[in-house]
Every structure is written in C-alpha cells, then in structure tokens.
Design brief:
812 residues, Chitobiase, domain 2, Immunoglobulin-like, 7-stranded mixed sheet, 21 helices, 40 strands, 27% strand, binds acetamide
C-alpha cells in the first residue's frame, strides 16, 4: 500500500526498543527432535517433516537413510541441470550445518548415494515439479525440468536441516511428489522509497529460492527515486536517484539520500536470480509516481515543463508523465534498455494512484484527448498504457500493471496485478485477462505484525502471520475457465517504513513462510496448526543464518486481567498470558513463565490460566515448541504503581472517527533498528487514554515526538484536521471524557522545528474523581511538523500511604 491516505484502524503509540529476538546469531545446541529421534512409521504418528512450503504429496514409509561423511551427491555425467542443483545443495549444507558431501558425476550411480537426475520419465509431469524418494539404500531426486530439480534440492536441504549434530544424519523413508499450485509466485521489493544494497537484493533472492518463489518484482522507479541506470538518459540517476529528506543533515544523517543500480549490477542480479530459477520483473511506474523522472527531465516528460525536486513525501504526488509523442518516445527508449537488461516476458508499468490533476489542467493533454476522441482522463490513462503495451508487444514482451489500469477500460494486451483487495483480479479474470493477486490486506508486508509495544515501524492494519496464511488467490466466484487466468500471487515489501535491511528481514520472515504455502502448496495441504509445527525448525534455520525474523506470532503478551483500579486498591494483580497463535484451537506453543526474575525455561511454571501476584511483581514469559525449543524471545513486564498508571502504544486508543495509523521511526531514513518508534495519525493528531482513574492524580506526563510531516495526501489533504491553538507553537491539550470535554490542561509545545525530537511534556491536573477517558490532542499547526504521543503517565498527588504500592526499582 503506497497510499497513506486510506482509512485505517487504530493507531497506538509508544517509543520502544525493538526486540532483539532472532538476532542471536548461531544458536548452539539445537535440538531437532524430528531427525534425532527414531521415525515412527504409522501414518499420523510420525513427526511432521520440517518442510515449508508443504509438498503436494508425501507418503511416509518404514525405515530411514543414514547420511555419513562418505555419502556422495551423484549426478549423471553431462547432466548440467542436476550438477547445478547439487552444487547449490552441497554449498548450502556446508554453510548451514557443516555437512560436507562430495559431488560425483558418474555414468553408474554410486550405492548409498543421493542421486539427482534430470529425466524425461520422471514421475511428476507438471512443470517445476519433482519426485523425491528416500529408502534405506539412498535418496533419489528426479525432475523433468531444471527448476523442478532445484526445488527438489531445496526440499532435501530442509530435510537435512536444522540439526545440531555435525556429521551423521538420518532422513526418514518417504516418497514425495511435488509441484506448484501457481506459476507466478512473486515477491515485490520497493527499491525507490528506500534503496537496498546488491547484497540485500541477493539475500532476498536466496530467501525466495528457499521458499520456491520464482518472480522477483522489482519496483525501481517512483516519486522518491529512480534507481535504474539508463545510459541514454543519465539525469534519471544523477538527478532522479537522490533526494533531500526533511531534517537532512541533522542527527548525523547524510544531507541527501539515494542510490541506483548500475547496469552491470542489474545484469549480475538478473543472473543470480536466474541461477535460482527466479525471473526478475522490473517495474517502471507510470503515468503516476513519476516525480523523480520529471525531476530529471522536466522538459522531456513533464506535463508543465517545470522541474520539481525528487519527492520526499510518501503517498500520492501529483506529477504525471506527459502524454505527447516525445514523452512516449522517451519511455520507449528507456524500455529498450530495460528489455536488454531483463529477459522477463512481463514488464510491469505500474499504473497505480495516478491522480489526474496535471492532465486535467494541461491544455496540451486536453487538446490531445479531444483529437483522439477520448472523453475522460481515466480513459486517457488506458490509451497511454496501451501505447506502452503495444511497444512491449512489438518486442515480444507483455505488460502488467496495478489494478487501476482497469479504470478507463483495460487495454487488450494487459495483465492485472490486484492490490486494492481482490476485485480488480476478479473483474480482469472475467474479462479474460491474466491476473496476479497481491491484495494489500493479506500480502503487504510493510504492515505491522502485532500491537505490541516492541513492534517496529509499519502501517496499520496489523497483518499477522495467520491472515497471510489464510489467503486464497482463487476467489470462489470464478469459474474454472476464469480461474485459469490467475497466474498466481505476490507479496510486497513497500519500503517507506522499511528503511534498512534489518527492517526488511523483520517484515519478511516468517510471513514469507506463510506466503510460500499460499503460492506453492495445494489447498488440501494447507493446515495452520501443521504449518506452525513446521515453522519451529524453520525459525531454527533463521537463527543459524542470523536472519532477524519477527517473533510476533509467538511473543507472549503479559496483560492485566482486571481493572487498574481494583489492582491498585487490592495490591494484587491478576495476570493473563497469551500470544497470537494461542487462540485456543491450535494449542501450539506452550507458555512458561517466572516471577522471580529468572529466565523462563520449559522447566518453569507452565501457564494454565490467569494467576494472582502481589504488587510489585515482574513476570517473564516465553513460548516453547513441544521439543523444548524457544519460539520467541522472552518478554518481561513489571506491575507496580507507576507502570499501572502508564499507558504505552498498545493501550492508547484512536480518537473517534477512526484514523490513518502509521508507526514511524523518530528519525527519517534511519538504518539503525533500535530507534524509538511513535504511533502517529496523519489526519488527526489525537489519542484517547481510556478509563483513567483520576482520584488522587495530580499531574500528567507525556512522552511525545516531533516528526516530519512528509505525506503526499493528494485529494485527502482536506481530511487533515487542525485544532485551535492558544500559544504560537500549539499545545498538547488534555480534555475530560471526550474531545469536546472540559480542558484539564494545556501543555505548550516548545519552540523550534527540529525534526526527530523527543518531547517530555508534563503538567498539573486539577483534582477529579472517578474514571474518565482523557482526550489528548496536539493543536500545533497542521501544515507544520507532525506530533505523536508515545507513553502517557498519570502521577499521583502524593506518594500512596500503603507500602505495597510504593514502586520498587524499575527494570533495567
Ligand atoms: C500500490 O500499492 N499503490 C500498488
């Protein structure tokens, strides 16, 4: 979702430090029960195979094959596809579990070998499919195409990892027949909003290969940057690849931000992808999201001829490509270089979020429309897209665009990628066009993964693992023939709020695992509890590879089960534990906890229901898989007088009428994952502290932040609400009961406009009694910086007399 202007649900605030879960590096002493214990043989009793995505068919048999240091990877002499697959496998096994297997090219396979062969009589006939057989004498992998062999080798890699024993390993006897449900299994990376290194791109390609994904959709141009070297038009990257963000030069940030991929780097990446059976589909966004191109060549492609800066505003910006012959010729010339670099049949041309103000205001565009007999600007976009589509077609390529290209009538040549839900795909498939489903609500990985206070940057709504897993690209309303137009599905990494490689990994893993089963596995094999069981060994692989995956699905939420009021007056807290996957049905991930400050282990108390603790108390909790491996980092929470009167991100509520929520880093373009993050609402700088007990409260303290207001809101600009202010820079206003209630205090905002600043606001509150909502809103000018609330603390007038309420030492 690139637009920031869609109505979204609750935004909640709080500066936090990100979890370090997953950045543990190599974990020693893995326990891999699946392979370390004897394999049970009766169906239903065998531990699940550690495979993601789940293969189409798996049969388990008696017995197992023992791999030793003498086991070789055997390929027929001259079988280059098999050789490539086993060389990749051998390197992976050595890297990830120090298992060094020799590779042998031979006319007769060695006994007790892992035999890999490309053969036209392999038992799986579907493209990209493979057959894998394990028995006491060895392992056999066959496929009819090289992609199938590659994917079979990935399955084999998963069967052989993770394991703590460097050396002998056993694989249970089985027969696997596997092939993909969809032929387009995509991942999109936005390299325009933030720029990633070549190494990061390759790391993503590796992750795709391991998950049997095969289309890397590379979003290379947008308002905020043009990232692809075009030799004919050097200004696209000398000018278009660089922007000056708000606050640039402050906080040690570079004065400009940007970068681009040279054509040599692109060739290297395309070859790297191809070796992993991944097609790179480049996207050049047009006619909108064109500001960087217009900044580079305003006279060639701009509508007005005026030169804008490369944009620093996320969202929807007004700059479009001009529609005249010169602009289209420029695009054709760019496409000539693009087609030389990218062998992909499909070229993505964007087409999304092009507000037509510039075309409406341009006499030249209006005259051209009249001459072409085109009545609306949406229809003009169709004509424009069709011109580009015809050029691509002439060169043997095909055009794909976002679902907005449906709006003015879909050009015959176009395929559609549906992002605004699934309706675009349904409509296009009914019209006989090929479609790819990338709906924002299910597959946009820049969305938050939880409402935890330790959640990093992202967009509301929350997109948890289970929602990704539940997505089905084939809508039930489609006939079989229409469903045949569904090429597949794609997850996206829009990068406005993913400024670093760390953020990208955190957003991607393990949602990519859930997505891989959406894209590859057959509906009959989809099984949420089974997936969670298979995810445990996958997380171990991530730890071994040093991948900072998100543990949001398993992280334990430690909550007060009962009112703050009752807790404070009784001196006893009733505490509940839970996590996202513990929904009562799957029963997965046992939660253990301690109250003595010790690290929870599987030997610690097992959570069975809410429990009582005297104040002050500290609870530490962690979820474990059945074999005792930890599924998430330990979470800890202290309950005392002060913490019970402090609300952080999770507890603050949006003001009435909904909001447009974002969780933003304190500083823009920040590469360090440990920056505090604040929940902001672009349209109304307002939050509710619900049900505050005000008896004995004498003051309020608010941790807030001054952030850049760099959002292209286009026609939604009118939704930004400003509140009247009493002092020049505005105040944080606290009102009783509702946002129309009596003003309890106004805390003036400090002078200045330095961005990325934390503000510690404190003020006295007049005496009140009873329980009230508090409406807190910033009255700063709505055309200035954005203010966001982090935590809010209510401070008693005097220390409570009861000794158990005195807050002990705070947690380090
Ligand atoms: C999009 O998210 N604007 C395709």
């Amino acid at each position: 979702m690139k637009s920031v202007s869609t109505g979204r649900s609750s935004a909640q605030g709080g500066p936090v430090r990100r979890s370090t879960a997953g950045r543990l590096g190599l974990v020693i002493g893995w326990a891999m029960a699946m392979l370390a214990t004897p394999v049970l043989t009766r169906a239903g009793q065998a531990p699940p195979l550690p495979l993601i995505p789940m293969p189409a068919q798996v049969e388990r048999h008696d017995g197992r094959f023992e791999i030793t240091g003498d086991t070789v990877l055997s390929v027929p002499t001259g079988d280059t596809a098999a050789l490539a697959a086993v060389q990749d496998l051998a390197a992976r096994l050595q890297h990830t579990r120090s298992l060094k297997l020799g590779v042998r090219q031979e006319s007769t396979a060695s006994p007790h070998a892992i035999r890999v062969a490309l053969t036209s009589d392999a038992p799986v006939t579907e493209p990209e499919g493979y057959a894998l057989t394990v028995d006491g004498d060895g392992i056999s992998l066959t496929a009819r195409d090289s992609a199938g062999l590659f994917y079979g080798a990935m399955t084999l890699w998963q069967l052989l990892t993770p394991d703590d024993r460097h050396g002998a390993v056993a694989v249970p006897a089985m027969s696997v027949r596997d092939w993909p449900r969809f032929r387009w299994r995509g991942l999109m990376l936005d390299s325009a909003r933030h720029f990633q290194s070549v190494d990061t791109v390759k790391h993503l390609l590796d992750a795709m290969a391991e998950h049997k994904l095969n289309v890397f959709h590379w979003h290379l141009t947008d308002d905020q940057g043009w990232r692809l070297q075009i030799t004919r038009y050097p200004e696209l990257t000398t000018t278009g690849a660089w922007r000056t963000p708000p606050g640039a030069g402050a906080h040690g940030e570079p004065a400009r931000y940007g970068g681009f991929y040279t054509q040599a780097q692109v060739r290297d990446i395309v070859a790297y992808a191809s070796a992993r059976h991944i097609t790179v589909v480049p996207e050049l966004d047009m006619p909108g999201h064109a500001q960087a191109a217009v900044a580079a060549y305003p006279d060639r492609v701009g509508v007005t001829g005026a030169r804008p800066p490369v944009s620093v505003d996320w969202g929807v910006n007004p700059y479009l490509y001009a529609t005249h012959a010169g602009s289209l010729a420029f695009i054709d010339n760019v496409l000539d270089e693009v087609m030389t670099l990218f062998p992909s049949t499909y070229i993505h041309v964007g087409g999304d979020e092009a507000i037509k103000d510039q075309w409406k205001a341009s006499p030249a565009v209006q005259a051209q429309m009249k001459q072409l007999g085109i009545k609306t600007e949406d229809a003009m976009q169709s004509w424009f897209i069709d011109q580009v589509g015809k050029y691509l077609e002439k060169h043997g390529r095909r055009l794909i665009g976002w679902d907005e290209i449906l709006e003015g009538g879909l050009p015959a040549s176009a395929s559609v990628m549906s992002w605004r839900g699934t309706q675009g795909a349904i409509d296009a498939a009914r019209l006989g066009h090929d479609v790819v489903l990338a709906p924002g609500g299910s597959l946009y990985f820049d969305h938050l993964q939880s409402l935890r206070a330790d959640e990093p940057n992202g967009r509301y709504d929350v997109l948890p693992l289970k929602t990704v897993y539940a997505f089905d690209p084939i809508d039930r309303s489609l006939t079989a023939a229409q469903a045949g137009h569904v090429l597949g599905t794609e997850a996206t990494l829009w990068s406005e709020f993913l400024p670093s490689a760390w953020h990208i990994d955190h957003a991607l893993f393990p949602r990519i695992d859930a997505f891989s089963e959406v894209a590859w596995s057959m509906p009959a094999q989809r099984d949420w509890p089974g997936f969670l069981t298979r995810l445990a060994p996958q997380l171990q692989r991530y730890r071994a590879l040093g991948i900072p995956y998100a543990d949001s699905a398993f992280a334990v939420d430690i909550t007060l089960d009962g009112s703050v009021d009752a807790t404070l007056s009784s001196g006893k807290a009733r505490i509940a534990l839970g996590n996202q996957v513990d929904d009562g049905s799957a029963g997965y991930g046992q939660i253990h906890y301690s109250t003595d400050g010790s690290e929870p282990t599987p030997a610690s108390a097992r959570y069975a229901g809410p429990f009582d603790l005297g104040l002050p108390a500290t609870v530490r909790a962690r979820a474990f898989a059945a074999d005792g491996t930890a599924l998430a980092a330990t979470r800890s929470r202290r309950f005392d007088d002060e913490s019970l009167r402090t609300l952080s991100s999770i507890e603050l509520r949006p003001c009435p009428d909904g909001d447009s929520g974002l969780r933003l880093p304190l500083l823009p373009d920040l590469a360090a994952p440990d920056t505090p993050v604040y929940n902001a609402d672009i349209f109304r700088a307002c939050k509710i502290y619900p049900a505050a007990r005000l008896d004995g409260i004498g003051a309020i303290r608010v941790d807030a932040a001054r952030l850049p207001r760099n959002f292209g809101l286009a026609h939604d600009q009118v939704k930004v609400i400003g509140y009247p202010r009493a002092t020049p820079f505005g105040e944080l206003e606290v009102r009783l009961d509702s946002c129309d209630g009596a003003v309890l205090t106004r805390l003036p905002l400090p002078a200045g406009d330095a961005l990325g600043t934390r503000l510690n606001l404190r003020g006295d509150l007049p005496a009140q009694s009873g329980q009230h909502d508090l409406c807190m809103r910033f009255t700063a000018p709505s055309n200035g910086p954005l203010y966001a609330i982090g935590t809010v603390q209510l401070i008693p007038t005097a220390k409570p007399a009861v000794s158990h309420l005195s807050s002990g030492k705070t947690e380090p």
